[in-house]
Design a protein that fits this description.
This protein is mainly alpha-helical. The protein folds into three domains: 63 residues, no CATH class; 99 residues, no CATH class; 31 residues, no CATH class. Helix content is 70%, strand content 3%. The protein is built from seven helices and two strands, in the order H-H-E-E-H-H-H-H-H. Strands 1-2 form a two-stranded antiparallel ribbon. Helix 1 runs antiparallel to helix 3, helix 4 packs antiparallel against helix 5 and helix 5 packs antiparallel against helix 6. The longest helix is centred in the C-terminal third of the chain and has 32 residues. The two termini are 26 Å apart.
Length: 201
Amino acid sequence: MVFPHVGALLITPTFGTRLTGTDTPLIPLGYNTINAETLVYVLTLSAKYLTLLPITILCIFTTQPSAFAGSLNRIGVPYKIAYAVSIALRYIPDLTEEFRSTLNSMQARGMGITKEDGSIAQRLRNLAAVVVPVLQSALHRIDSVTNAMELRGFGTQKRRTWYSGKEMEGLDWTLAVLGVLLLAVGIWLKVRVLKGFWYPF
């Protein structure tokens, strides 16, 4: 998450000027100068992603994938997309555990990815030796799931039922209404007050 933003800062160091119409030179790079507007823009993006990350992780590890997919379908998301999300969430813990297990087995053979295990090139080769079998296993699982879905006629119907689901309760409706209100306020501030990218200086 950090590297793309740093790359954007180095490749387009004056991009913030297009958003604000001002240019405040800050850090000379030789070929160009990073201005304060671009730095604020990159920090804003980083803050946005850092805000979403804990909520996403909390959702992944506390919600059953099938229940989450059923809820998405109930609010209007096509069931094919909802099921794809369910599959992705279901296999994240499995792939994480498999990566950890493969990494431990490679380290037992003296092929680690820490600083003590050689140069950067050697560590990248060791990492590739871990990632490749994990990706192969993931592709094999995808192929197995795809075949099972085709045999069961998945996608032939316009609608489908879900094995598990949960009815909306009072707190759910309250949070949903609150989320819509916050979205409306954000849109209003963006259109009527800020009228573009927020730059505090």
